[in-house]
């Protein structure tokens, strides 16, 4: 994986393996990707907290990884997942982080 473009990180797009709905985007460093592969649960690197975190470690809404796909430039991954817990992925309590349409008023 090419971690050089984003100072040691790669984007990780999270997609529901059944519905194909895009649920969220996070960032991974090499350790987060290795832990994800080892445990089978999506683990990310928090840029604000400067540490690793497993999605759902406190809420129970974990993401069980079914497949990891790598883009053609080796700098982004797509994780196809099964949602556990109540199924809500966004920290706001929504099912997905992508629930608001961009409007003409948005800048």
What does this protein structure show overall?
- This protein has a single domain, classed as Phosphoribosyl-AMP cyclohydrolase (Ubiquitin-like (UB roll)).
- The chain has one helix at 30-39; strands at 10-16, 22-28, 43-46, 51-54, 63-70, 77-83.
- With 107 residues, it is mainly β.
- β1 and β2 (22-28) form a beta hairpin.
- It has one helix and six strands, in the order ββαββββ.
- A four-stranded mixed sheet has the order 2-1-6-5, with helices on one face.
- The mean pLDDT is 95.
- It starts with 9 loop residues before the first strand and ends in a 24-residue tail after the last strand.
In short:
It contains one helix and six strands, in the order ββαββββ.
> How many independent structural domains?
1
Q: What is the overall number of helices?
A: 1
How far apart lie the N and C ends? 33 Å
Q: Give unreliable regions as ranges.
A: none
Order of helices and strands: EEHEEEE
Instruction: Give the rounded overall mean pLDDT.
Output: 95
Relative strand content: 25-35%
User: What is the CATH class?
Assistant: Alpha Beta
Share of helix, binned? under 10%
Structural class: mainly beta
Number of strands: 6
Rg, rounded, reads 14 Å
| CATH superfamily descriptor | Phosphoribosyl-AMP cyclohydrolase
This entry's quaternary arrangement is single chain
Kindly report the CATH topology: Ubiquitin-like (UB roll)
Shape, per Cα inertia axes: globular
Describe the main β-sheet briefly: 4 strands, mixed
Strand order of the largest sheet: 2-1-6-5
For the record, the CATH architecture stands as: Roll
